[in-house]
């Protein structure tokens, strides 16, 4: 579904918009009026999509507000007598990390690969942006929400 929404909805929107503005043309001439490569066309829009997906997905992983909220609760809880009254199970649950949604991670990976494969003939930089995005996503998932930087020695 991510692939359809990211890659094919802009393409269909360009076709529908061109179809609405050129309804007096024949079927074959309608497709010649679609703005694919021109200014404000589909390819220009997809450049923006590739750049945003390359940097926004890792940035959202790093700056996850739920992670910082849980870290704040853990620090606040560790400073009070609340930890002394916890059972071992409650302590494990309280101090564990954030759950990682692997289905979402795989969907993002597959969307990135298929989207780059679909648009690579028209946008060669799509492969570079996608590879950069995958590397940044891997690094942020590996390091994980600044956990590396916040670990106590």
Element layout with pairings:
Layout: H1 2-21, H2 27-32, H3 42-62, H4 65-79, H5 88-95, H6 102-119, H7 125-143, H8 147-150
Helix pairs in contact: 1-3, 1-6, 3-7, 6-7
Would you mind describing this structure in some detail?
With 153 residues, the chain is mostly helical. The chain is elongated. It has helices at 2-21, 27-32, 42-62, 65-79, 88-95, 102-119, 125-143, 147-150. The protein has one domain. The model has no long low-confidence stretch (mean pLDDT 78). 73% of the residues lie in helices and 0% in strands. The chain has eight helices and no strands. α1 packs across α6 (102-119), α3 (42-62) runs parallel beside α7 and α6 runs antiparallel to α7.
Q: How many E-type strands? A: 0
Helix content: over 70%
* Silhouette: elongated
Q: Which class do the helix and strand fractions yield? A: mainly alpha
**Series of secondary-structure elements, N-terminal to C-terminal:** HHHHHHHH
Overall number of domains? 1
Q: What gap, in angstroms, lies between the N and C termini?
A: 43 Å
Query: Main beta sheet, described?
Result: none
Whole-number average pLDDT? Answer: 78
List low-pLDDT spans.
none
How much is the radius of gyration in Å? 23 Å
Q: Which oligomeric form is depicted? A: single chain
Number of helices: 8
**What is the percentage of strand-forming residues?**
under 5%
């Amino acid at each position: 579904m991510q692939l359809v929404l990211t890659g094919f909805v802009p393409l269909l929107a360009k076709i529908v918009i061109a179809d609405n503005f050129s309804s007096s043309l024949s079927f074959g001439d309608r497709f010649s009026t679609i703005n694919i490569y021109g200014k404000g066309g589909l390819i220009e829009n997809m450049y923006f999509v590739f750049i945003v997906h390359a940097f926004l997905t890792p940035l959202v992983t790093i700056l996850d507000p739920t992670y910082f909220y849980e870290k704040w609760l853990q620090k606040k809880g560790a400073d009070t007598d609340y930890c002394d009254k916890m059972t071992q199970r409650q302590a494990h649950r309280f101090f564990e990390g954030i759950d990682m949604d692997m289905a979402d991670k795989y969907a993002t990976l597959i969307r990135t690969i298929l989207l780059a494969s679909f648009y690579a003939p028209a946008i060669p930089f799509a492969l570079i942006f996608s590879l950069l995005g995958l590397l940044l996503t891997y690094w942020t998932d590996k390091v994980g929400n600044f956990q590396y930087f916040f670990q106590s020695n």
